[in-house]
Amino acid sequence: MINKLNVLAVIPARGGSKGIPLKNLKKINGVPMVQLAAQVASSVEFIDRIVVSTDNEEIAKAAIEGGADAPFRRPEILSGDRISDTQVLAHALQEVERQDNKIYDIVVMLQPTSPLRTKQHIEDSIEMLVNYSYDSVWTVSETDSKCHPLKQLTIKNKALNYYDNQGKDIIARQQLETVYHRNGIAYVLKRDVILNSKTIKGSNCGALICHGDFISIDTEKDIELTNYFLKK
At what angle do helices 33-42 and 57-65 cross, to 10 degrees? Predict the structure, then answer.
């Protein structure tokens, strides 16, 4: 709880994954990613309840070992790869509120695929939402200028073109405005944003800029690289 506001952490971790089977159970430094997410959430005093939203018993067990609860199973209709985060969070929030007979004012989404998050990242995100009256806060990282949108290209029918036509005017990186990308470390949302606005980005969304190397796990190579960073 923070400022008398109840905080629910939701770890979305379905069993299906086209890229890496049972990706959320892949180990980082010897620990399943979903368990790592639960462990770091358990260290945050602001969080009143931690639940995993999953359709898989192995994932549920690993999350519980990390300190989360698994009081429900995600229905099949919400377990596909085209289901939005908003749908998953709304289901988890309403189910936990029904079971607990309690309203949660703030929801923190912690995706297992960003295993390099720390307790401080989560706490700073929650405090930013509360102290600056945002309705949502995303953690972001600065995008390397080599990957800037104005330096991206498309290929259609073997013809190369600029993704954005303004790219033709870029000569030096100093011309590029700094841009950021989601790093998946934390999304902090007010209840109303999820249930009424039906989005994870409210009309007044704050950005917590994270400094350092963060990897969002999509491939086996990402796992190897993350383990390398941790060992180093």
Answer: 40
Cα(41)–Cα(50) distance, rounded to whole angstroms? 7
pLDDT, tens only, 115-138: 999 999 999 999 999 999 999 999
Separation between Cα atoms, residue 208 and residue 206, nearest integer Å:
7
- Express each pLDDT in 150-159 by its tens digit: 999 999 999 9
Q: What b-and-e string marks burial along 11-30, b requiring 16 or more CB atoms within 10 Å of the CB?
A: bbbbbebeebebbbbbebee
Quick check: helix, strand or coil at residue 25?
Answer: helix
**pLDDT digit string (tens) for 56-112?**
999 999 999 999 999 999 999 998 888 999 999 999 999 999 999 999 999 999 999
What is the C-alpha separation between 191 and 129, in angstroms, rounded? 12
Domains of the chain: 7-142+179-219 (3.90.550.10), 144-177 (no CATH)
41 close to 122: Cβ distance less than 8 angstroms: yes
Neighbouring residues of 192: CB distance < 8 A, sequence distance ≥ 6: 135
Q: How many of the other CB atoms lie within 10 Å of CB of 220?
A: 12
What whole-number distance in Å separates Cα of residue 151 and Cα of residue 12? 33
Full DSSP string of 140-172: EEEPPGGG-GGG-EEEETTEEEESSGGGGG--S
pTM over 0.85: yes
Q: Which amino acid is at 8?
A: L
Compute φ and ψ for 145, nearest 5 degrees.
-60, -25
